[in-house]
Specification:
By secondary structure, the chain is mostly helical. The protein has a domain of 176 residues. Keywords: Membrane, Transmembrane, Transmembrane helix.
Length: 254
Amino acid sequence: MTQTYPPPVQRAAGRSPFWRLVVVELRKLVGTRSDKLVLAFAPVFMVGLMLLFTLTQTNLASAGKQIGPLLIAVQIGLLLVFATVIKLVAGEWQYKSVQPTLLVQPSRMRYFLAQGTVLAMVWLICSLVTFILFPALIKTTANGLNHNYLLGMRLGWVLGVTMLATALVLLTALIISLLVPNTGGSLTVFFIVVPILMVARLALPEVFGLIYPLEAAWHLAGLGTGWTQTICSLVLWLALLGFSLFRLQRRDAG
């Protein structure tokens, strides 16, 4: 004899639709007043740093010189945006707020994919805003220096560099927040260690390019140090992503 349940029990026993999980993660991204304030101030911070890294340039005679500030602006200018991403991912495990989500749907991979969908939305928005603002600012500076604006002839390349650089910074934030499931610890690593890696890479690119998370973006921009550094960097960070997902599947949610 088949046992039937009333509609509320059936709904509770069924799997939540994926779109609903995505909506829940979106709400978590702006769930507190501090999150809203950070995200509201993030565009001001990003534009301010773009102005700093573009309008202060004195040599924009080549396409490489013109796109170089983009890579630094992406890594530093988007720190506030990705700080909310770290809080979303790491904070869930630190404060055990992941429990209700896993009770509704136990699949940790579906939970991670829902968060990944939200992160993809953040990535697209950040990439498009950067792609719209940066060329306009660098064109103004180039004209002021009586240099030809060269990026306008290669907008597809500029878009590719922008999207790859933004994706790699976001990937770095995600990996750190998964490996260090503590909001304070993750933010400390992201705000201190990653910028230090950037400075070290600028000083010794052949050495620190091997572990620098944005090395592939620098390579695509024509400012890399070689395929060895690019491949080693990609292998390292993809391996860290795989390891962090392995840890996620076995992490205690209680």
